[in-house]
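LOG
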Amino acid sequence: MDNPFSDLLVVSVEQALAAPLCTSRLVDMGARVIKIERASGDFARGYDAAVDGDSSYFVWTNHGKESVVLDLKSDKDAALMNRLLAKADVFVQNLAPGAMARAGFGSEELRKRHPRLITCDITGYGEEGPASALKAYDFLVQAESGLVDVSGAPDALGRIGVSICDIGAGMTAHAAIVEALLYRERTGEGYGIGVSLFGVASEWMNVPLMQYEYGGKAPKRVGLMHPTIQPYAAFAVNDGSQVLVAIQNEREWARFCDKVLGQADLATDTRFNSNNARVQNVDALHDIIGGVAGTLSRVEFTELLAEADIAYGSVNSVAALSEHSGLSRVRVETSVGTEVTMAAPPIHRSIDANVGLPPPPKLGQHTESVFSEFSSV
């Protein structure tokens, strides 16, 4: 059977990561995505050349799309854009606030012309308001939202190592579009969606925000440990590598003390007999655990943890991820025709029989064919 989105047409004026990631998830479900680019192309095409000359960002989020180069100031190109939108189910864009409206393709006006159309505007800080004019690249939003304030080591702020705000906005937009498609199926009407990187990041910051506003203080940066649950931290074993240990309740704590540390009485020690007590005495707690872990090999320590049914994880490098037994891969072609693998999309569907992904498009690869197909409405 066809994938459930196989009859959907998505038109996306997209660049960088948030919108392309969103629409790539629609491609995964069979949607046709026509990617509108400037003559200079989506600038993510040039972020790196790591994948046989292609950008790793671009290969990840643009598989199976069609690339059409348009200058929306041109009457001819604007006319094609209007014909595309007359047929489209979903319109996505992540240009600067107001840019599409100035070009004559504002989402509100488009929905008046096409009531079944679902529009999705992805911005940095929303379309309106005092912050809307701020530049909103991922790292800037990490900083503005306070994410970096709760990340990193005690004496050093740290950028989250992937473009987390872009990724979060793209996945939020995808979920909202799927909701809108269900709404349209039930009512026959589309509607508008607005997602901002800052809105996503600040919503994720609710726990530290509420801890600050209602508890009187924000969590401190603590490196490889949890600020409010203990022990939930990385401990060095005797080869210098680190194992992350996660205790979530008092039953686990008692087993950990007995089976791993060999000190059952620690479970009732007043310094450690509740999570709050362990957080207050975290230095003493870590000295005890580190003293045991440091005498053991990784294998010995993790075997004890496994036997006690305690959650643990290795603090892996990217190289270790590349060889991880849990890593699922999918094959994809590059724009130059070579085949590579990358981490598979995280959604596993019983109806999904894909064994590979179509290549990302070359810049303007489909301009002529789309002009021909949509020569009239």
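LOG (cont.) second protein
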Amino acid sequence: MLEDLSFDLRYAIRAWLRAPAFAVTAILTIAFGIGANTAIFSLLDALLLRPLPVQDPYRLVRIGSLEGNGMTVPVPGPLLDDLRKDPLIEGVCGLQTPVSNITLKGATFPAGTHALTSDCYRTLGIHAAIGRLLAASDDIPNSPRVAVLSFAFWRDKFAGNPNVLGQTIRIEGEPFTIVGVTEPGFRGLLLGFPPSVSFPISKMGGDPSRASVFYWADVLARLKPGVSPQMVRAKLASEWRRLLDSSLPARFRDAQRAEILSQPVLVTSGANGLDYSLRNRFRQPLAGLLAISALVLLVACMNVANLVLARGMERRREIAVRLALGAKRGRIARQLIAESVLLILGGFGAALLLGSVCDHLLLNALSMFYTDLWIDAGLNLRVLAFTAGSALVALLLFGVLPAWQSSDIDSAAALKTASRSVSGGRAPTRRLLISGQVALTMVLILGASLFIETLRNLRREPLGFETHAILDAQLTPLPGGVLKGPAASAYLTLLLDRVRKIPGVDDASLSTFFPLLTLPYPEDVRRLDAPDRPVLQASAQFVSDGFLRTLRIPLLEGRDFRRTGDSQKTAIVSQTLARRLFPEGSALGRHIRFGSETETLNLEIVGVARDARLDDPRGKQLSFLYLNLWERPLGGNWGNLQVRSSAPEAQVVAAVRAELQKGGHQYTFQIRSLAAQHERSLLQEKLLAALGTSFGVLGLALAAVGLFGLLSFFVATRQGEIGLRMALGAERRYICWLVIREAGILVGTGVLIGLPLCYFVGRGLAGLVHGIAPVPVVSLLFSSAILLLVAATATLVPVYRASSVDPVIALRHE
């Protein structure tokens, strides 16, 4: 058996060395088909499937409360002690993932950090590369402030110096002593954003001298062997309200406490760590792209199958002779399969390289939107298994079946036939493959056109506010620069007035969010005069006076916010929210309650603004609530400064940074124009349009090559017939018509098959497209037109060759 296998492989190598152009074409076609699938799947794997690099990650669960908007929210810190006593749980890790100011060697910069309970690393099974990790003694009041560096941060900022232990690093202006470095493989618990430094959660923003420090924490718990998440959920469900009630401090009262206690427990898998936006945003697009890339692979397999069948027709004489000399059909089929296996191996290696390059490009595109994004989309066993599975499918589609058909030859008839006119051009399998390619290519072109049309629609979609000539500066307090109460109001008032006096600045405002970047979670909104009415959901943000004016959002009724303090909290509502809350009349002067925070339990509506898509340009939810920033000035320490100007952007950026430096309380590490942010917010649609177009062009090229090859083979195998027809008086236009008719039948059949496929695919892509009709007639017509144009181009050369046949030469050869 081994000897036969060795012979078959040597035979296959010699066969491809005799036809290098054919081999390279087939390998590249396979590489593009499999590589497209590998690139999308490896990114999908990194975002959705890849577990944390910790000990036994599938025994980790995330425990939290379920909010009405479907989000998992953190739990009170004291509740973690109750979870540690649970007999079903082996270990508990409480954490927060803030972006903190790090001061190192005199320079201050923002960096992702982890605030952890002392048992986190032990629960996860993480070890130290040098030094030690957090210990129980680090959570004791008055204990020294200690920090653990990530391996990457230690390598980049300290050049991997082992003498880093005992050195001091400042976090939010407070000194922390470095006690250890985590192992190289651990990149934190938050997907996409690895921490630079970890420190005890009890030291985050609290006074270490206090007997106890209250905090909220996300929770990852390790289950004991044999315990399922369902068992933990069932046990906690009956006592969750009691656990929450005993964990909340007395300052949580009335409606706020009641709302927290009403939230049920949620226990989900923690194997993949924490994520706040990436998975929800890219799960559906990546799944759609994976389905589209599967069509590309199918088109590639059909193309290579056509090539293999054409090569089999050219070798029918050789195969017939071998059959006549006693060769078994199975042996010949096996040798032909060996040739396909070599193609697959070459395509497999090229696909891995191509997929890696594509993933690198995709991650670079993502990093333009997400600052400091890091995702490991490299090869692992799942990606290799998926790529190998794709290669196996390709082998079955273009290797086994064509090889078996090529070996099915009547040797006597083949040897008796001296002509090349062996009806190869009418081979039904090849015709069916070409029509299938045309149908699938039509689907790919439709998908690309839908994605492009979606991107175009979103760019034209009115946002309800202007983005031109508006800069947004993200404000971060300097270490020790957080202000409270009257001091915060005085500082922010002075800052806003100074910025408005910068030459070229037309207006300026403050807010607690970055339009088109921050995704606020909707919360409950109730009418105080009608508590029995259905509860609505809306998003809200704190803004200063002048915010609507700066972004050119018209105020339809009422007035803007005032800076003077007032016991009555105020709000401005969007037009849609006002209509939903008070369908019977004006909303001005009415009172509402938003969420459960003390500051928003009684809000008087002082204005109604026109609807604006401030958080998501594709969003259909237009209910929005503007809250008065001056009534919660602490929120202005972290937030954004919007500046409308007519001066050059660089000049305004420099002036804003200078004003912040003069103030001495805040700095900005990022200033973007709203126009640029609008483009960044369309990242999902840009990726879909770019990849969809790439797949469509690739499928179109493969279909054109397949059609060209079949028509060329059609002409080549019927040269004798064409010569005879011309000798008997047939005109060249009639000969041309033979080829054109063949092309028309192939393409027309493909279009007829593709139309219903396009309809169902269009319905399936409904969740990924925006502003597209349920039946995209224009896109269907566009796809058909592009396909017919390419098909006509692919037909030109075969038609010319057919019309140029010399009947004398053709008959002499016959």
